[in-house]
Amino acid sequence: MTDTAHIRNFCIIAHIDHGKSTLADRLIEKVHLVSDRDFKNQILDTMDIERERGITIKSQAVTIPYQGNDGVIYELNFVDTPGHVDFTYEVSRAISSCEGALLLIDATQGVQAQTLSNMYLALEHNLEIVPIINKIDMNAADIAGTKAQIKKDLGLDAESALLVSARQGTGIDELFEAIITRIPPPEGSDDKPLRALIFDCHYDSYRGVIAHIRIFDGTIKKGMKIRFMSCGAEYEVESVGLFKIALVEKAELRAGSVGYIVAGIKTVSDARVGDTITGVDNACQKALPGFREVKPVVYSSLYPVDSNDYEELQVSLEKLKLNDASLVYEKDSSAALGFGFRCGFLGLLHLEVIEERLEREFNQSVIFTAPSVKYQIQLKNGERVFIDNPNNYPDPSKLESAEEPYIRASIISPTTFLGNIMTLCLDKRAVQTNMTYLDEKRVELVYEMPLSEVLFDFYDKLKSISRGYASFDYEISEYKPTELVKLDILLNNKAVDALSQLVYKDKAQERARFVCDRLKDEIPRQQFKIPIQGAIGSNIIARETINALRKDVLAKCYGGDVTRKRKLLEKQKEGKKRMKMVGDVELPQSAFLAVLKTKDS
Fold it and tell me: How far apart (Å, rounded) are the C-alpha atoms in residues 122 and 282?
């Protein structure tokens, strides 16, 4: 077993698309951990969605054996981290299982929002930070400018920054030596009671939950009885080992190691990320700090396109939950769409990932309703309730006040786009709290803004007006008072519950007009007029009308008295009126999707 002096635990932190997965590929390729025949790009990104989008959703770990220039073989434990703001908690747990972090900065983009926030996260956990400038082979690379940003924005030693090209493999040898010399070995003793951190887990259909752990003190081996400190559940260890792309079983794992355990755990929610594992016979007194329950922030209902697929969808969600403990769902129903589920997500990217996984992995065609956040409602009888579903909105006469969640948003952008970004943020009810010029060309804006304003089209618009150069990062801050109303959409004078939304009062009319306009283009014409209305209570605030398909009843009427024509038209009019009273308007699936799209798409 490797001595702790020869172990290095590190992660790579970066903004999205700065080359993290590519650099991980080069490290694995360099030590021939995978044969050339089996190697593929983004080897640690196991999902198709991760490969297509170029993002890491599920964090991975790998143990890399490396012989240093001193001839000693080191055990380098690399913990990959997700790159998106939705998965900040997972990033923090991965960071807390390491002693060092490689801070990757794109030479063509420079320091961006998540570069800063992830660096502060690493500093909070007292990690040794090794700055790396990536993509030095690109024509647009500005190495001198990036070094200046590292010194000014991050306060790190720019001269110690390593220059690499992850794509071409330049500077990888120097990087390996820097990991050995600059990142400290782990502390901890094999003789102390077991203390291990769960930083991730995944589900295997044959072995149950496989927990990814970092051992701080003690040892863990097969047959040992362990306890999860947050829930008190006890298990017997079936096997332990290391990640070398494939799982490699070992006799035991000792202090400082990163590896996995299999203990017959049935669901991922039992092995919570951030929880502490200890021994039953020789338990530690205090759990590792930082554990918290992951709470969803975005809610949406999902329904099968064909109501006969409800049971299949339920089974699919149960299987998905085995792999993704942060997915929360409960049964729901709608008059328009039938039976479905109300789901909670970590953010909009998480919602999109779940939608794509349902379609690809389980072959499910689903409809999502408009996403919503969790509002805090104060009733006149003194009761305080949380609602995320428009159908649970109380009677306005019983309502005292409402509060909505706010975020602290950080935007880093070239100064050229400053005016447009400020206009966008003002339109989204944002209040500027800080503005810092990072250098002559870049500015950082800090805003307090409602989370609900970010849900629909904020990120897309920000990328459009800044030509992709602005970066955005946020954290949930607090609840603040708001004027909230329930917007109902009426189709042929009947409310469609699946299209109801909770919106800010001053934006209700704008939203209602947008929804009515979109539905007008999507709903097929009938033999009678169809009114589409947006309403707050009994007050109609927007309307569009789909004109009737008119059959030419006068086609066979050649001449004769005008009363004959009038009689035919009156008969047609009566028929249309009767049809309107009994006629049902079918809402196509495209209508629900159209309402979710942004105004410009």
Answer: 31
What is the rounded average pLDDT for all residues in the chain?
77
Does residue 305 sit in the same domain as residue 266?
Answer: no
pLDDT tens-place string over residues 117-170: 778 778 878 888 888 888 888 787 888 888 888 888 788 888 888 888 877 878
Residue 384 corresponds to which tokens in the numbers above? 């305080």
Q: What is the CATH number of the domain that holds 100?
A: 3.40.50.300
Residue 528: DSSP 8-state: S
Q: Three-state SS string across 89-121, please?
A: HHHHHHHHCCCEEEEEEECCCCCCHHHHHHHHH
Whether 289 maps to a domain, the answer reads no
> Rounded to the nearest 5°, which phi and psi values hold at 369?
-85, 170
| pLDDT tens, residue by residue, 358-413 | 887 788 888 777 788 888 888 888 888 888 888 788 888 888 888 888 888 888 88
User: Do 457 and 545 sit in the same domain of this protein?
Assistant: no
Q: In this structure, which amino acid lies at residue 204?
A: D
Global pTM exceeds 0.85:
no
Tens-digit pLDDT profile for residues 519-529: 887 777 776 67
Domain-ending residue, one of 149, 182, 215: 182
Residue at token pair 């786009």:
417
Classified as helix, coil or strand, 455 is helix
Instruction: Please name the residue that has the structure tokens 């904020």.
Output: 458
